[in-house]
Automatic annotation (TrEMBL), chain A:
Keyword Membrane: no
Name of this protein: Ligase
Biological classification of the source: Bacteria, Pseudomonadati, Pseudomonadota, Alphaproteobacteria, Hyphomonadales
Region ranges (Disordered): 82-120
Keywords: Ligase
Automatic annotation (TrEMBL), chain B:
UniProt superkingdom: Bacteria
Gene3D superfamilies: N-terminal domain of ligase-like (3.40.50.12780)
Organism: Hyphomonas oceanitis SCH89
InterPro entries: ANL_N_sf
Protein name: Uncharacterized protein
Length: 438, 224
């Protein structure tokens, strides 16, 4: 309420701006506690540690943990699930009175994985911190769009702070109601706001003549998630007066969201311990270098993932952030299985994307990296172009693309141009396989 | 913060019009305690799974149901009411073998069909609370204990094990006006309801239900 005179703190939990030294010590203590707990309670962790011949008592420091704690992969979880007929893959701790419901992952590939939920899950804790950072305060409203499989109707991490959630499905059919709610309740934030909804809003505004700037004038931000945010959507929402904060999953243990500096996803380090390792050798990589994100939950007693390899390639930055918070940020660069090394240089689809879209004929960004092996002597690209937009000849376009890409990437390059309709046969534009063997 | 600020804003639809509806968590929780009385009639074993099929904006109607599951030591899990999420209904049924599925609507039946699953096989051996648009189809499936679940304005009417379609009598006063069920709130609420025409024709049953719940039960004739 506007009449409220209370000045609230900048961060929801003081741990968000704790000193680096305090955070490091806190993590050291929590890691020892969680290793002990996970081995004692989670059947799969017990097995993985026994197979590796490591005992929780061997972990007395972060250095011990990095040196000795065995990794856990999605394949380990799947294998355990199939061998023991356990849907949680040996990762669920049966704690009567603690599990209040069982959520599931999106399950885009195969069966969704169960995630037992405590009263306030780590993801709900991080979600509340993220909204708070955007500027949501008690007495405010938030547009809450989600799928029920994320935890049903029991979520209360915002309402327990005195923040009202206006509930919607993530569906274009909800747009008129979201517009209505925005004008009526004047919310200060919304989540999750994905690409398809942005496009649906654009069509709605065109059709109705409704003024987006007026609709969104009370918003201090909107949390965007689902897939990488494109330049077009960024510019569009900016013209509506909406600041988007991208969010991503922190390897299934929590959420990670951008701050107002927009220079990476903040990983809350009291909730997860994060590392980056070489995706092949599993050797640690230095902060700032590209490696596979490995996460360990420091709080989740119902699903205590320890050294879980996420398959995401990231670069981690642990320097203090301009937003006033001290927790690490990471840039998400792609999936480890998409990475290719050409003469030792790491290349990911995301890097190529920014180059291909710069030409009018190839602005749809349809291309594939031919990856016969992880290490190649040359970068082979198949690029689709719109034949109706060709302004000179195919050879001339090829030359233009060749110059732009080879200058930026600086490795031997082989290009193959095809009619983009050929690539569109492989799936919708955002789903075509970016990396292919042939 | 003032006490007049809602915790959740859900909605209800009557006569084709969807209205925002504000609630406090305490209202949802106390409705859950009431609903546990109807749910108890099934004597599901603690530790069993119950799958709820709904959408996020149905929080006012389904949060009490989920809270009742927790109170009885059951594990709730969720799928969206949408043809696209019907695959999750099949997957969760297979993985968790839930004793019951609540909120099945025509979207689920269509989605299962689209994905090549036999709904009767997915539901077999379970209690399935179906919405009005799916009830007849579910009732026709062999080996399925079909029950009704009906969103009546902001209230959720849930059928007990003895066939009574119960509504929370402490929370809502139901009267019949011109054959239409009319709902008013009886308790302190952040968003009081007075004389809400629900769009359903029906009657109040004046005999106590065999399930032992003192909550009133209604018989529905259909939509108006
Ligand atoms: Zn920051």
């Amino acid at each position: 309420m506007a009449s409220n005179a209370i000045i609230y703190p900048d961060v929801l939990d003081p741990i968000e701006s704790a000193s680096r030294e305090y955070l490091d010590r806190h993590q050291e203590a929590s890691l020892a506690v969680m290793c002990e707990y996970a081995v004692a309670n989670a059947p799969l962790i017990r097995k993985v540690w026994a197979d590796a011949g490591v005992k929780p008592g061997d972990i007395k420091s972060v250095a011990d943990f990095r040196e000795k704690a065995p990794f856990l992969t999605k394949d380990d979880i799947r294998a355990y699930r199939d061998a023991h007929n356990d849907p949680t893959g040996g990762m669920s701790v049966d704690s009567p009175g603690q599990t209040v419901s069982v959520g599931t992952t999106s399950g885009t590939t195969g069966d969704p994985t169960p995630v037992p939920n405590w009263r306030r899950t780590p993801a709900e804790e991080t979600y509340a911190r993220d909204h708070w950072h955007i500027g949501v305060r008690p007495g405010d409203h938030v547009c809450h769009m989600l799928f029920t499989f994320r935890g049903g109707h029991r979520r209360r991490s915002l309402s327990e702070l005195g923040i009202a959630e206006i509930c919607f499905s993530i569906s274009p059919f909800e747009i008129p109601r979201i517009v209505d709610a925005s004008k009526r309740f004047r919310p200060t934030s919304m989540s999750i706001f994905p690409n398809p909804l942005i496009n649906a809003f654009e069509q709605y505004f065109e059709k109705t003549g409704e003024d987006p700037v007026d609709v969104f004038k009370s918003y201090k931000g909107a949390i965007f998630g689902g897939e990488p945010l494109g330049d077009r959507q960024k510019a569009l929402t900016r013209s509506w007066g909406l600041e988007l904060f991208e969010t991503t999953s922190l390897g299934d243990v929590a959420g990670a969201c951008e701050c107002r500096e927009h220079n990476g996803f903040h990983a809350y380090e009291d909730i997860a311990f994060i590392e980056a390792v070489d995706p092949i050798t599993a050797e640690p990589v230095a902060d700032g270098d590209i490696g596979e994100l490995v996460v360990t939950s420091l709080v989740d007693r119902l699903s205590p993932l320890v050294r879980y390899r996420t398959g995401d390639l990231v670069s981690i930055d642990r320097s203090p952030c301009g937003c006033g918070r001290t927790h690490a940020r990471f840039k998400l660069l792609g999936r480890a299985t998409d990475q290719i090394l050409v003469k030792g240089r790491s290349i990911l689809p995301r890097e190529i994307m920014g180059l291909v879209e710069k030409h009018d004929e190839t602005r749809a960004n349809l291309f594939q990296i031919i990856r016969a092996d992880r290490e190649m002597d040359e970068l082979k690209l198949r690029i689709g172009y719109d034949v109706t937009r060709l302004k000179d000849s195919e050879d001339a376009l090829k030359l233009r693309l060749y110059e732009r890409i080879s200058v930026a990437i600086e490795v031997p390059l082989v290009l193959e141009l095809v009619d983009e309709q050929e690539l569109l046969k492989l799936g919708p534009p955002h789903k075509i396989p970016r990396v292919t063997k042939t | 913060m003032t006490t007049s600020h809602p915790d959740q804003i859900g909605c209800y639809t009557v006569h084709g019009k969807t209205q925002f509806y504000s609630v406090k968590r305490t209202e949802l929780d106390r409705a859950g305690v009431q609903m546990a009385r109807t749910l108890r009639s099934f004597a599901f074993k603690p530790g069993a799974y119950v799958l709820t099929v709904s959408v996020v904006q149905e929080v006012v109607q389904f949060a009490p149901f989920e809270f009742a599951l927790q109170l009885l030591g059951l594990y709730g899990t969720n799928a969206d009411l949408s043809p696209f999420d019907a695959g999750r209904v099949e997957s969760l049924a297979r993985q968790f073998d839930p004793v019951a599925i609540c909120g099945v609507g025509n979207e689920v039946l269509e989605g299962l069909k689209m994905m090549g699953h036999d709904a009767a096989a997915v539901f077999k051996g379970r209690t399935v609370w179906a919405r009005p648009d799916a009830y007849d189809a579910v009732r026709a499936m062999p080996g399925v204990a079909a029950r009704r679940v009906v969103l009546i304005g902001p209230a959720l009417a849930l059928e007990c094990a003895k066939g009574g379609l119960h509504i929370d009598g402490r929370e809502w006063e139901v009267v019949v006006d011109n054959e239409e069920l009319v709902l008013s709130s009886r308790q302190h609420r952040i968003d009081p309801v007075s004389g809400l025409k629900t769009g359903f024709s029906g009657r109040l049953t004046d005999m106590p239900c065999a399930c032992g719940s003192p909550d009133p039960h209604i018989s529905l004739d259909g939509a108006i």
